[in-house]
Amino acid sequence: MTSPRHVTLIDGSGFIFRAFHGLPPMTRPDGTPVNAVYGFTTMLMKLLSESDADHVAVVFDTSRKTFRSDFYPDYKAHRPPAPEELVPQFPLVRDATRAFDVCCIEMEGFEADDLIATYARAAVAQGAKVTIVSSDKDLMQLVGERVQMFDPMKNRVIGEPEVREKFGVGPDRVVDVQALCGDASDNVPGVPGIGIKTAAQLIGEYGDLDTLLARASEIKQPKRRESLLEHAELARISRRLVLLRDDVPLPVAMDQLAVKPVNPETLAAFCAAQGFRSLMNRLNVKAPPVATMAAATPAALPVAPKVETRYELVVSEDALDRWIAEATRAGTVAFDTETTGLDPLRAQLVGVSLSVEPGRACYIPILHSPPQAQGSLDLGGGGPAADTPKILPAKTTLDRLKPLLADPAVLKIGHNIKYDMQILAGLGLVLTSLDDTMLLSYVLDGGAHGHGLDELCQLHFGHANIAFSEVCGTGKAQVTFDRVPLDKALAYAAEDADMTLRLHRLLKPRLLAERMVTVYETLERPLVPVIVEMERAGIKVDRAALIALSEDFGRRLGELENEVIALNNGEVFNLGSPQQLGKVLFETLGLPGGKKTKTGQWATGADVLEELAHLHPLPARLLDWRQISKLKSTYTDALVSQINPATGRVHTSYSLATTTTGRLSSSDPNLQNIPIRTEEGRKIRHAFVADAGCKLISADYSQIELRLVAHVAGIEGLRTAFASGADIHAITASQVFGVPVEGIDSSLRRRAKAINFGIIYGISPFGLAAQLGIPQGEAKAYIAAYFQRYPEIRDYMERTKEEARENGFVTTLFGRKVYTPGIKDKNGAMRAFAERAAINGPIQGGAADIIKRAMVRLPAALKEAGLAARMLLQVHDELVLEAPEAAVEPTIAVVKRIMEAAASLSVPLLVEAGAADNWGEAH
């Protein structure tokens, strides 16, 4: 064997988690989760195909207990167990590594980072260069002349400059900086009050940690000096924790890491077992005869034949007119926009691509300029700068495209077409008659996989689209699309339109075959223009009120921190540290009932603090501190920066194809998670205000999920109660506990309410007992009494679980599929989780469908009534509108009528509505 020239060491454990959290849920034919396996496999395949390394290994952690735990038990002790859906994927990732005939390395008592350090040192000693495939900051101490890191997720090389940018020091002093600033994610204590910048400054001034600690008394800043003197030993312990061992006995000899040819049969068998049909196509391997693919598994769908591509750059009026005429004759055209950014309210249109048949597409540049002459979109201007390739004037192009985009006789197909509609709306252009391949995929396959264009092309065609980073670069060198050379822009943009058209031809016929036409045509497709208008409208925010509230929260946090410290006999500790809090509660204060997690750390979650709050005031104050801290950082501070300066409003973005149940999700900012059960949370809603002369209207479905339970489970007792308009929780308490309705006290009603809302989520006796503060046996008796009084609910649960086991999904009243991965899993915890999701799917999904039906119908109803109100927000079961003050009452009447008629159930739908100057008072 020759000595290695280039050794690549892959941080396997790191990439398992990144793949798991970065990809949507995916399952193989038998229901086993495989999203992390899929992400890891594609990453490994790409690395092997692009690297010139002659020696490669994937390095894994084995367990949390290592030699570091022996001298510092709190090391990584606070980390929660791995997600249930990830646990069965750990061995499969190792199988994936072996399927490529790549060496797997792990060793009890040591972390993957220690093994990577040891192999890197050994490789350098043999004269090889080393690439560490990871983004883990702890590995940056290894970077040197012959060692570099590579982050494949960001396509970024990490060398000495990048390390200095991160830590403020060279790789040889990273350990010293980490020892000072600590690492909360690993429970490395560090020195209190010292962050990365301060640590880098100190190490830069004193040279190294030992010198700094020896001369700490010379430091002028009192707090810094005292902290270093008091916590010097913590710094030394921290250095031992972060310093990687590079002298571990090699579990596998270096020559065993040599790259070997892949055995196609082994690789094919692995991919077939996971249902990775698209990967098999990319790898050009065939499934063994014994491998079977479930027809319902999206990854196993037939792969479309490859098509020869012919892409055209449109830079003349004749060519543009020819494409428009061809699209008009065809009656169907795939359409995509390229822009300067992701915010549709601020991005500029750079170009448009069209495709009318598979393999044929064009790109029409609108705003392209070299870096030194970058301009902005001017609808009245001429062409581009003189030294750019000749393109048509923007106004000419858009004037010619306008009739095609608005033509109802021509179907425009896009992928996430909501974004394209927003961009066009900013230019006064309307896109009518549309289909969205992202929504087609979402309706057909729900939560079975993600619905991004790149993922779907991999899944269905085995085709890897050109990556955005390939044309625009990465990191500081990344450019906006208007600065991309036209040949690269053509290949990238035309491919998007081409592949969108191919997806449409593959997916649209499945609607009828799989009986999903109603969901797509009545819920998802008509909702797109409604959401576009909502996002563009935004909602006004009182900046001054937010700032004042943030300052108030800051003062409250300081007061609470002082109270907590005083309750701890004046001993200062980090309120945000679960480790330190656990010691205060159960060791210093000696409170009873403390429980340690599997990692050996005291449990200090909200449930624990709530149980302790009646025994001592400190846990109660700590709960208040946590709540206000989250409100300040997540909402009052963040929302101020998210106000659009041009509109004075915040414009949330709704994701239409993310959740498993059909619910919309909100981001940038997320306005669906603002808490309303606490006074502080409600204060945040008060900062959302109506425009001058208007009022905000909040219309909320009352107990819609409980009403759906009564309907789908056929619970006569609940149906009767809802029909009579009685207090549903008082009626339940009366029927379950055998007490006359007139004699129901607030305690019994609260217990009935907890069961009513908890039962459909599979609440356990333990969970109910914790929620109500009663013995577990008593909670178990309550649940048994509930099932005895309402036996229909148990029948519904069993029926729904069986449906999920048989089909892999359950359906809502309107036919939406809610996938239930893991329903047949051998792991009991994972199976139970899937069963709870199956029971809740038709309920939560049904509620999502109902409010979508209302949203689709509401704009036309308001227009027909001559009302100028507009929808601004959807927050689960609530709609927020803005209306002129004089039109509030008629608007509420129309909104209630439409929302309450959105579904025909065996129980009435009830909507509660209010109006005020701000959201808090309207709800």
UniProtKB/TrEMBL annotation:
Residue stretches making up the 3'-5' exonuclease domain: 311-512
Residue span(s) of domain 5'-3' exonuclease: 5-260
Top-rank EC class of the record's enzyme: transferase
GO biological process: DNA-templated DNA replication; double-strand break repair
InterPro entries linked: 3'-5'_exonuclease_dom, 5-3_exonucl_a-hlix_arch_N, 5-3_exonuclease, 5-3_exonuclease_C_sf, DNA-dir_DNA_pol_A_CS, DNA-dir_DNA_pol_A_palm_dom, DNA/RNA_pol_sf, DNA_polI_H3TH
Catalytic activity: DNA(n) + a 2'-deoxyribonucleoside 5'-triphosphate = DNA(n+1) + diphosphate
Keyword Cytoplasm: no
EC number(s) recorded for this UniProt protein: 2.7.7.7
Assembly: Single-chain monomer with multiple functions.
Biological role stated in the UniProt entry: In addition to polymerase activity, this DNA polymerase exhibits 3'-5' and 5'-3' exonuclease activity.
Name the UniProt record assigns to this protein: DNA polymerase I
Organism: Paramagnetospirillum kuznetsovii
Lineage of the organism: Bacteria, Pseudomonadati, Pseudomonadota, Alphaproteobacteria, Rhodospirillales
